[in-house]
Amino acid sequence: MIRKVNVKLILELRDKGLSRTEIAASRHISRRLVNEVCTIAQQQNLSYRDVITKSEDEVYKLIYPHKYEYLNDDFYAKPDYREIHSELRRVGVTLKLLWQEYAAKTRKENKIPVKYTKFCTDYGNYVEEHEFTSHIVRKPGVSCEVDWAGKTMSLYDHGKEHKVYLFVGVLSYSRYTYIEPCLDMKMNTWLKCNVNMLNFFKGAPLQIICDNLKTGVTKHPREGDIILNTEYERLGNHYHAAIMPARVKKPKDKPNAENAAGDCCTFIIARLRNRTFSNFNELCIAVTIKNAEYNDRPFSKADGSRLEMFRQEQEFLQSLPAFAFDVSQWRYKVKVAPNSHIAYKKNFYSCPHSYIGHDVSVCESFNDNMVRIYDNDILLASHPRFPETSVNRYSTHAEDLPKQSHYVEFDKERIEKWAKSIGNNTAQVIKRIFSSCDFEQQGYNPCLSVLRLSSKYGKSELERACEIALGKISTPRYKHINAIILEQQGKDSAALLANFDGKPLQHEGYLRGADYYANLKQRSGGKA
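The structure corresponding to this sequence follows.
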């Protein structure tokens, strides 16, 4: 029934002596309606005693006979809300459009349609009564939800376990999902994942709904403007997509991302739990295959799949710009070492030997996973970027290395000759370092860092440390030998030694030799 004024109650209160103003104030009824009911009752000589045995509807019919017939829902043509709910799943269909079609059809049949407000209200009640999920706010091409999955995977690189995080992006309408494994959750990784996601969708939505993580939102106060991360806001502007942070502690603002993040645990992490990954690219391929299976899997409570729904939604996405958003990190004034390599994030990349000793700029591009070396605007070299888990790895272009005849400052022969002048153990360490390198030049820096310890501690100290290291480590390097020397001198380096032996070396008395004091005299300008 449509809401109507309680006529019988007004007559009862009037009979009890309340004024019209008091009735209106006490029962939250407009004074105009109270005056109207009392006036009509006086004109018809009706009092409360005349209607005390009648029902509320019967009294209303006596006062408003011309309105009563319109109060019954049967007077209006009832919409088929089951069909309406089904139609709303189709691309581009809105509740407003369905009401217009219903109203036109009803009038054509000489019936009276319900108003749009009642149409929407009754549909909402129908959805709530049947515990359906309303599709009114999910429109194709409008929104995308992004988040990190709560659970992680594992990568075993050289026996060391690394966490692998899963980025999840979901189109709200089709629920088409993009999943990407990452070795960290830093800003550049977050931006790269968003770029890759939009490339995967082959289009951009009107808005990207994210959680309140620091890589996306700098500040989300209860009142006032939301402050977005500058780079993330730039990315949104580049793709003409508004960045819309979800409300704090309101996961239902991005339900599809939350559901997909939970599905990752079952459909990807659980299904791959018995596989051990030692290569990050291999892990990425496995996740990509499972991601495709997830999108192609039929819905359990609806027709079709995410992939089929996405094919309908794709035409509503905005076209991508000609160039992808540049996600990169720069480092300036990086010196080129004598081995024609620059050190960047614990790994080494070659550049032309003519730049040895010069400062260059390094650009790490996250879009294509490349490391590029520049001299101002001139590109000197490009290398595939090593994973974050890699340490002391070399990427070398043979053409970047100098010819042996032109490299007079340091070469293998000169380094080995220096090592032999210190002792056989030192020479053996240098030989092992060179044997572990793909290119001769890759061993220059590690060898020189070991040999320079003779200037700091003396040849005897270095030779003694090399002898101990050769018995413990297959390829000793600077950090091992330096730790041994410090231990021999009684300094607190037992923790370092435990890393490659399991037991700290025993303290033994050891005196510095004549070489040490000779070098000390040279370093102090002739004063011992």
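Residues 36 and 81 are 37 Å apart (CA to CA).
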